[in-house]
Amino acid sequence: MAITWNNQVPNVHFRKWWQKYVRTWFNQAGRKKSRRTARQQKAAKRAPAPVNKLRSVVHPPTQRYNFKLRAGKGFTLTELKAVALGKQKAMSLGIAVDFRRRNHCQESLDDNVARLKEYLGKIKVFPKGSKAKAGDSTRAELKNVKAAAPCKQVLPIKQKAARTTARAITAAEKSVQAYRVLRKAHVDKKEYGKRLVRKAKKEDAKKQK
Predict the structure, then answer these.
(1) Do residues 95 and 115 lie in contact, with contact meaning Cβ atoms separated by under 8 Å?
(2) What residues make up the domain containing 72?
(3) For a tag site, which of 6, 69, 94, 146 has the least CB within 10 Å?
């Protein structure tokens, strides 16, 4: 008899029906073609309207990614108001609307307003029921429009240049002391409320005199 000491007693445990749990994916190429055909059919049905909606441009969170640009969920009500668009009208024109996002800086507001103006300048809105009218010019236009391959993004986002080219430092830049500028800005922000109180007290003292 063999001594096993503290080892496991040998046993035959390969008795499971392992073929039942094997997953195959032989229809990968066929499903790829089916999805592509479905996209083309959807584009032809919605033509000349775009398949995808226009998305806003936002900055991702955290310092690691906030220098990039990506597509957001939709435009804010403030951005739509800047181009005189209501939320229902915007959604009917293929513009995504985000009711939760807020504009925290003027730069992002201006970028998205410019994006909306560019989109509104490029689209053409056909009158409702133009397909049903025989002899209508818009119907002929709709007939001639061919559904192109659906683009993944309406008005693709252009990334801003992350790097600047090297150049010589000017004399005006050398004369400016960056530390002093930052220090003054820090003190002005910190003492802003106290200075307002002191100013108000001086004005009250003048009025009393």
Answers:
(1) no
(2) 50-127
(3) 6
